[in-house]
Amino acid sequence: MGTTPTQVLAFPTITAIVRGNGTSEVIVAGNSRVVAGDSVQELRNNALSLIVGEAQTLQRPLRVRIEDPDGQGELIVHPDKKIESVSYEPAPARRRAEAPATTPRTVAPAIIDTVPAQESAAPPAEPAPVPSPAAPADAQPWPPAPVAVAETVDTVPAPATPGPQTAVVVEEAVPTRRSLKDTSFLVSAPVLEPAIQGWRGTLTRLGFRMDPSEEELTEREDIRTVSQHWPGPRTIAVVNRKGGANKTPTVVMLSAILARYSGAATVAWDNNESQGTLGWRTEKGAHDRSVLDLIDSSTELLSPSTNAAEIAKFVHHQTADKFDVLRSDENEEGDHEVTAEEVDIAHQVLTRYYRLVVMDSGNTARAANWRRMIDHTNQLVVPVTAIEDRAEAARLTLQTLESRGGHDAELARGAVVIVSESTDAKSSMSGDALKRAKDEAQRIADGFEPFVRAVVRIPYDPALVNGPIRYEALQPATRRAWLAAAAAVAAGF
């Protein structure tokens, strides 16, 4: 029993394209192969030969999409060289509306009264049909023989009675010229790079050019988003009035990703009232200076004559993740609390030297430095672990800002909430416990989604629990999730 067209698999996807400019290609599963030929029919035949070879390799019929100047349709190509036509739609017939541009202008001859009118000419003989190219006895031609479409010809009837003839003058349309301003030889369309991930990337490295998967395209778009530069500096505030909500890891990860991909000068600023933990989770430089030292030297740092490299005296560079850290005061004997005016001074200094400022915060939304931080913020980020009291604290933080109205309320409505699976979890947790942690994270994420601009979930990763945080120390799934979080943040700039 033979195979019917409906039983032929549409895999791999095969397209044969013959163009009017004398070029053609066969695309098999995204892999393009150029086909040579001296004529359209030869290009068709060579393309079909290539597809027959593919069918013989797979030992089964193949479904092929065809496109050429005469139309488009679908064929079934068998290993035994039999070709069946499933469908074919001829290209619309084109009617010549005017004489070609190369037709010379006809000059009207003088009227000659002595020439009698000619007798009516006999109707022209029917043109002989043009034979179709030869095709195998067991194959349908490509394309199937089109239905002849008569071309409309406007004729001038001969005069009914003898008399002098008047020549007809054909007016040629004057071709219009476009301005060179309306065209360009530069290619402006983006070029889709081949896949580099998964089995598609493997095939690409083996010489079969494969398009990237939807997941890879999404990752590329997130990378493009975080790699942008914006006019003027941008300030991100990471807030939650509850301790242990993952604020400091969030500051470190956002700073690392934005600095790595965008190349923009980025600083993470610990804006706690007194002593924060950002310095404990990041690399320490060759000095002990903090935000208080930067404020004391602000006049010098804001001077037009000061070199940009002087800021290195006050910040701690992260050698792997390419951002700087401005620590809070870590003097155990000190009791200084940063004021609103000092936040203004420090922010003015940092936005002179950095394009991106990511601010860690304390737990008191009423503190002067906390409220002044909000005044300078362009994008609000609210981290929360999948524990109900942290989630409730995050909700109350957003509610407080929304109740203040104006800029604060806009920040709350445009916030990005980052829900991390509990950092209290251990790698030895049972499967049921891990599932409950994931379910709780999803429940909290769903609860915030109607009230903010974006919600991103982060999987549990032991590299975020203790000690200095390094981007490269994270698991691949965690890095991908943080990239999505940073893209959501950058989209608000």
- Output the helix-strand order: EEEHEEEHHEHEHHEEHEHEHHEHEH
Q: List segments where confidence is low: pLDDT < 50 over at least 5 consecutive residues.
A: 95-104, 106-122, 127-139, 146-156
Overall 3D shape? elongated
Strand content: 15-25%
Distance between termini?
A: 64 Å
Strand order of the largest sheet: 9-10-8-11-7-12-13-14
Count every beta strand, where a strand is a DSSP E run of 2 or more residues. 14
Please describe the biggest sheet, giving its number of strands, its sense, and whether it closes into a barrel.
8 strands, mixed
* Name given to the CATH homologous superfamily of the largest domain: P-loop containing nucleotide triphosphate hydrolases
From the helix content, strand content and strand pairing, which structural class follows?
alpha/beta
Quaternary: single chain
- The CATH architecture of the largest domain can be given as 3-Layer(aba) Sandwich
Could you report the average pLDDT, rounded to the nearest whole number? 83
Helix proportion: 25-40%
Instruction: Provide a count of the helices.
Output: 12
Q: How many domain modules?
A: 2
CATH topology of the largest domain: Rossmann fold
| Top CATH class of the largest domain | Alpha Beta
Radius of gyration: 37 Å
